[in-house]
Amino acid sequence: MPSERDARAGAPALFGVRVGGVDVLLPTDQTLEYVAAATTYPLPGAGRRVVGMMQLRGHPIVVLDAGAQPATVRREIRRAPVLLVGTVPEAGAVLVDAPPEQVATGDAVHDAARPGSVFDAALTRPSRDARQADRVWWHVDVRQMFRILAGD
Q1: CA-to-CA distance for 147 and 130, rounded, in angstroms?
Q2: According to the model, what pLDDT value does residue 15 have?
Q3: What is the pTM assigned to this prediction?
Q4: Beta strands 31-40 and 105-108, pairing class
Q5: Is 81 helix (H, G, I), strand (E, B) or coil?
Q6: Range(s) of the domain holding residue 81
Q7: Cα 132 to chain centroid, rounded
Q8: Cα-atom radius of gyration of the chain, to the nearest Å?
Q9: What is the pLDDT, as a whole number, of residue 136?
């Protein structure tokens, strides 16, 4: 689901997804896949943002939660929408608020306030949605976002 404008400009293709209440743009070349109902298994003693583990074609993948109030202890197996990024075996997953979507990015936004998410430091710059002028998408450094979430 590449961003039309970025694809035309020769920049990496992007798509949009809502993570932890923030609309972010992710490069398609860093994204493995979207799983609408991934089965996650709890990891007792893991960090507070670790939802648990899931399997992707036999490979264990850590699933992280970027939400404002992640659960402190998860003891149940659950199904949740996740986005997998990176490449196996170093891939990771993050809970998403909605399925990924195609985004047509517009102009840069110079006066946008940071959303106040736990991963604000990984947000690099905001862009206006060319189809919905009141919607702002944040470009994100994926590796930094995962480092922040894994370390919290």
Answers
A1: 30
A2: 93
A3: 0.86
A4: unpaired
A5: strand
A6: 4-151
A7: 21
A8: 15
A9: 94
- Total domain count, the chain: 1
54/91 Cα distance (integer angstroms): 11
Is the pLDDT reported for residue 124 higher than 90? Answer: yes
Rounded-to-integer distance, Cα 91 and Cα 94, Å: 10
**Bridge partners of 60?**
55
Mark 53-67 as b/e (b = at least 16 C-beta within 10 Å).
bbebeeeebbbbbbb
Percent of the chain whose predicted confidence (pLDDT) is above 90: 57
| Nearest residue to 23 via CA among 151, 112, 131, 140 | 140
pLDDT of residue 2: 44
Is the dihedral angle over the CA atoms 11, 12, 13, 19 positive or is it negative?
Answer: negative
Q: Which residues contact 79 (CB under 8 A, 6 or more apart)?
A: 37, 38, 39, 40
List 46's β-bridge partners, or say none. none
